[in-house]
Amino acid sequence: MPATTTLPAANDHFISLELAIEMTTRYRENRESILATNYQDKDILALSETFSKDAVTTLLAVGDCAAMRIYYGMDAAEKVHAILVPVNAVNEDILPEISILEDEPVILEEGLRCPPSCPPPSDLNN
After folding, report:
1. For all residues of the chain together, what is the average pLDDT?
2. According to the model, what pLDDT value does residue 85 have?
3. What is the structure's pLDDT at 69?
4. Strand partners, 112
5. What does the pLDDT read at residue 91?
6. pLDDT > 70? residue 102
C-alpha cells in the first residue's frame, strides 16, 4: 500500500447522527457474520471501546502530535482492541522507544471494551 504524508482535513471527520446510527446498526447486524465460523459468537469484535478524556488528552499533548491514529490489535484471547497512537504533521506515528520512559510518547489500549462492559443505551448502540 502506498504511504501518504497528508493528514485529513479536520472537517473531513464530521458525519450526521443519522449516518452514525446507520453505520453502527449495520456493524452490529453484521459483526458476527463477517467472521469465519470458528470465530463467531466469541465477541471477537467489540461493539465499542471507551477511553478516558485524560488518557486521550495526554496522547494528543505528545510533542508534535497533529492527529491520532487508531490501529486494531488482537489480544491472546483473540479479542480485537483499538490501539491509539499520536501522529505528527507528516502522518508518521509518534512511538516510544522499546524501553519506555515516563516522558516518552504514549500508546493507548485498555479501553473499556463492549462487550462485556457496555455503555447505557443510546441511538448508536440499540
Report:
1. 89
2. 94
3. 94
4. 50
5. 93
6. no
CA angle, residues 6, 107, 61, in degrees to nearest 5: 65
**HEC-encoded secondary structure of the chain:** CCCCCCCCCHHHCCCCHHHHHHHHHHHHHHCCCCCCHHHCCCCCCCCEEECCHHHHHHHHCCCCCCEEEEEEEECCCCCEEEEEEEECCCCCECCCCCCCCCCCCCCECCCEEECCCCCCCCCCCC
Q: What is the mean pLDDT of residues 27-53?
A: 94
- The domain ranges of the chain are 14-42, 46-120
C-alpha–C-alpha distance, residues 34 and 51, integer Å: 26
| Rounded Cα gap, residues 25 and 75, in angstroms | 25
